[in-house]
Write a structure and sequence with these properties.
The protein is mostly helical. The chain is built from 4 helices and no strands.
């Protein structure tokens, strides 16, 4: 039982840690989107950013990070 509770504690703590990186990523997207001059690209980046923020709000942090990193990759390409 001790091992089970310890395992659950680690899962909860690690989930909270990963959840904290999503806001940093979308703030980075918000900062860097101003450097995008192509309106179509800017719209796609904004769409990915909004989807990433929604995924974070829904509790799907891995999807959020994937979408936000994709938006950053588009900006940097």
């Amino acid at each position: 039982m001790k091992k089970f509770l310890l395992s659950i504690s680690f899962i909860i703590i690690s989930s909270a840690s990963f959840a904290g990186s999503c806001p940093m990523l979308w703030n980075k997207v918000d900062t860097e989107i101003s450097n995008v001059s192509d309106d179509n690209l800017k719209a796609k980046v904004q769409e990915l950013r909004d989807a990433g923020k929604k995924a974070h709000s829904d509790g799907d942090h891995s999807k959020s990070e994937k979408l936000l990193n994709e938006a950053l990759d588009l900006i940097n390409s």
